[in-house]
Each structure stands twice: as C-alpha cells, then as structure tokens.
Amino acid sequence: MAINFDNVLGLHDEALRLRADRMKILASNLANVDTPGYQARDIDFAASLQRALGEGDFGLALDDGAPELLYRVPNHPSQDGNTVELAVEQAEFSQNAMDFQTSLTFITMKLRGLAKVIEG
Length: 120
What we know:
Shape: elongated
Low-confidence stretches: none
Oligomer: single chain
Structural class: mainly alpha
Order of helices and strands: HHEHEH
Number of domains: 1
Strand content: 5-15%
Radius of gyration: 18 Å
C-alpha cells in the first residue's frame, strides 16, 4: 500500500514553502532599511496558504504558485520615502522564523511516527 504524503504532512509542507518565501521578502526589507524610496513588501500568509491549498475563490486559475506581494503601510513614514521600519521587520522576521520551526517540528513528528509504524 502506497503512502500519500500529502495526507500525512497536511498543510505543513506548503506552509514551509510559503514561510521560506516570506523569509526572503522580509530579509530583503531588512537589507533595504536605509535605501531611499524603498517600499517594504510582505505577503498575506493566510490568503497565500489558502490559495496554495486550493481553497477559497481567487478568480482566474493562472496562478504561478508565488505568493502575492503586498506593500506594507508604515506606522511612521520617513522623509526619504522608505517604508521599512526596522523594529517591525525584525519582529515579523522573528515570528516567521518561529512559525517555520513549528511547521518543521510537526513534519518531523509525523515522519518519526511513520517510521515507527513501518519498523514495527
């Protein structure tokens, strides 16, 4: 009997991919904290995960799998037009890293459970 890993891993494999994509976006924001005119970007993780799992009504099916990039609205706009706020980006980066680790832990637990079942 074949194992369907989509059923075993649930949404965590897709969540890991989206978290990794978001990590790149947040790292880009942090790298451009002093770049005049740079517009901070982010994704709506929940909407991106629903789209990736094929849930909800998102219009045309021309999606390439990449999350939709949104512009972050700053709490305190700067004079040079840069919308990156260091504390906000660091907090989002840290939270995303913890969420990534949580999904990775769930996948690890699932795979260990499967290994125990297979080994007997």
